[in-house]
């Protein structure tokens, strides 16, 4: 979860009053924070906040929430938004690259060191969480006095334009930045495979930003800056607008005046940002049923006002106004959670469970531990690899097709983690690749879960690499494993694309196939950049445990 570091004196200044440290220590955790650092002789505070509250990723957002939560300024926090004459034209060329952009102009801020540090930290926290490491959202903050509207957001060829990036000393093209600049190399993966790159330029062609990589040096914010232009580009419009709303309102908490930017896209003109609260309905009986309370409508409205909402009793329930910086409110049940927080977790009391229950170890867990002990006794080292994988590792490198209907991640963080693995062997081969500079032999195993056709399976996988690795070795190993866990099995011929033809076998118990063993094919060895023979096996531990239990019952 994101850890927010901020100054105690800065927090008190933003709240407009001194707040006892002991009160902060007691009340902030009740909002959903975990104390990391608070000492009486230090000005620095550190709290960890839940990832569903990006509006609390800055000291400005924390101060705003505390003013309502502690009863100083309950209810909806409104921000005046005045219109400006600033225009931003969106060229159709960005549709295939990074289609969405939103913006805001915030005037009159006094740029102090705490503000700059807070904005930079908030920007990076939003990039990592809401922005999925800049894939989904990327934010730019600019000194407005150094640029001339109207602005244009368009896609350019890799060498079509050049500018001096932040932390740069010479003009560079987008292609050069991705190859040579520190930030370019760090985030080049976001634009991988794109023929054009997004760019924001002003009236004179001066580059404001090369999203999602880096800003131009011309618009760097300094202590002389008074007016700040915020831009946000991305692949999800809801996330893009939420990021701008959070940043713009944080600047407004420092005394800035928010003004609109006219965004022209696809023949429509939009005024950004839109901070008008979103109306929602909440049935008090629905909320009470979720959290086990019996609050009246008036009491429930008061709890929501302490969480920064506008709330009043209407004809058919509560009329709630949700601030636009609350990107986490998607459903009435989200309001119910805030009713519980506003009511106070300390008021729910505590009691022992009505029914006494006793836990015991999962039989499959104990069986897995027994198998691990067997493998260690046979000279294998245990490893634990990631459950998420990708098509190249799981299928292409192993000479397989996705015939097992792999379960895929809807919004993957990276290209390396797009599906849930269907086999342990590719993960083990990847470990061998990372250790190919180490001495041989290397023998590894893992007991872990895979997902096949939407169902979890606990598997045992093992690999051995050295110059004399052979089918006989892995066959003897598997027979030793079966014997050690008390299961009798046979080895039958089998063809498998990941193994050498004629040197692959199926593990059969009671006429049922429960695994595979053999010599890994040269193509798979080469795909994982290995240079020595590899033998491997994989067994279905759930089937093994069931068959062992059946054998015991029949005997």
Short characterization:
By secondary structure, this protein is α+β, with helices and mostly antiparallel strands. It has 16 helices and 27 strands. Helix 4 (113-128) packs antiparallel against helix 7.
Could you please describe the fold and organization of this structure?
This protein has 555 residues and is α+β, with helices and mostly antiparallel strands. It has 4 domains: 3-69, Phenylalanyl-tRNA Synthetase, Chain B, domain 1; 81-272, Phenylalanyl-tRNA Synthetase, Chain B, domain 3 (3-Layer(bba) Sandwich); 279-347, Phenylalanyl-tRNA Synthetase, Chain B, domain 1 (2-Layer Sandwich); 363-553, BirA Bifunctional Protein, domain 2, CATH 3.30.930.10. It is built from 16 helices and 27 strands. The strands form 6 sheets. The chain has a 7-stranded mixed sheet, with no helix packed on it. A 7-stranded mixed sheet has the order 19-22-23-27-26-25-24, with helices on both faces. It is globular, with a radius of gyration of 30 Å. It starts with a strand and ends with a helix. The model has no long low-confidence stretch (mean pLDDT 91).
Keywords, separated by commas or semicolons:
555 residues; Phenylalanyl-tRNA Synthetase, Chain B, domain 1; Phenylalanyl-tRNA Synthetase, Chain B, domain 3; 4 domains; 7-stranded mixed β-sheet; 30% helix; 27% strand
């Amino acid at each position: 979860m994101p850890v927010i570091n901020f100054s105690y004196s800065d927090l008190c200044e933003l709240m407009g009053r001194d707040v006892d440290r002991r009160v902060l220590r007691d009340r902030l955790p009740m909002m959903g924070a975990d104390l990391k650092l608070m000492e009486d002789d230090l000005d620095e505070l550190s709290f960890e906040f839940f990832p569903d509250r990006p509006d609390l990723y800055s000291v400005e957002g924390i101060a705003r929430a505390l003013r309502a939560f502690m009863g100083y300024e309950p209810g909806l926090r409104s921000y005046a938004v005045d219109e400006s004459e600033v225009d931003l034209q969106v060229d159709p060329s960005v549709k295939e690259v990074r289609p969405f952009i939103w913006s805001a102009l915030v005037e009159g801020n006094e740029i102090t060191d705490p503000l700059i540090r807070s904005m930079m930290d908030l920007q990076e926290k939003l990039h990592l969480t809401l922005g999925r490491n800049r894939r989904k959202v990327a934010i730019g903050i600019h000194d407005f006095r150094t640029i001339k509207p109207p602005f244009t957001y368009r896609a350019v060829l890799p060498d079509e334009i050049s500018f001096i990036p932040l932390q740069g000393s010479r003009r560079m093209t987008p292609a050069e930045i991705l190859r040579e600049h520190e930030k370019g190399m760090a985030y080049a993966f976001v634009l991988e495979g794109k023929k054009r790159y997004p760019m924001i330029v002003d009236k004179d062609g001066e580059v404001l930003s090369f999203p999602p990589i880096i800003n131009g040096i011309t618009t760097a914010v300094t202590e002389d800056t008074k007016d700040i232009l915020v831009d946000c580009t991305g692949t999800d419009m809801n996330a893009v607008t939420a990021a701008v709303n959070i940043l713009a309102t944080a600047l407004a908490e420092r005394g800035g005046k928010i003004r609109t930017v006219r965004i022209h896209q696809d023949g429509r003109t939009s005024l950004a940002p839109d901070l008008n609260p979103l109306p929602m309905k909440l049935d008090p009986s629905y909320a009470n049923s979720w959290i086990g309370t019996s609050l009246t409508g008036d009491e429930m409205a008061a709890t929501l006002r302490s969480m920064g909402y506008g709330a009043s009793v209407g004809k058919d329930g509560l009329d709630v106004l949700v601030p636009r910086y609350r990107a986490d409110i998607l459903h009435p049940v989200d309001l119910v959670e805030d009713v519980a927080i506003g009511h106070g977790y300390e008021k729910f009391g505590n009691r022992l469970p009505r029914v006494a229950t006793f836990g015991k170890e999962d039989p499959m867990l104990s069986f897995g531990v027994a198998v691990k002990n067997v493998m260690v006794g046979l000279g294998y080292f245990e490893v634990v690899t990631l459950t998420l994988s990708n098509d190249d590792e799981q299928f292409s490198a192993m000479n397989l097709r996705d015939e097992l209907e792999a379960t895929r991640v809807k919004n993957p963080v990276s290209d390396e983690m797009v599906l849930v693995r269907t086999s342990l062997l590719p993960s083990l081969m990847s470990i061998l690749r990372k250790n190919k500079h180490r001495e041989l032999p290397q023998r590894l195993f893992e007991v872990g879960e895979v997902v096949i056709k939407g169902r979890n399976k606990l598997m045992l996988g093992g690999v051995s690499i050295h110059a004399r690795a052979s089918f006989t070795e892995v066959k003897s190993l598997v027979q030793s494993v079966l014997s050690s866990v008390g299961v009798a099995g046979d080895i039958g011929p089998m063809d498998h694309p990941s193994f050498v033809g004629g040197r692959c076998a199926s593990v059969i118990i009671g006429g049922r196939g429960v695994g595979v063993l053999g010599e890994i094919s040269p193509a798979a060895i080469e795909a994982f950049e290995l240079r020595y023979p590899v033998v491997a096996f994989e067994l279905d531990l759930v089937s093994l445990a069931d068959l062992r239990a059946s054998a015991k019952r029949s005997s």
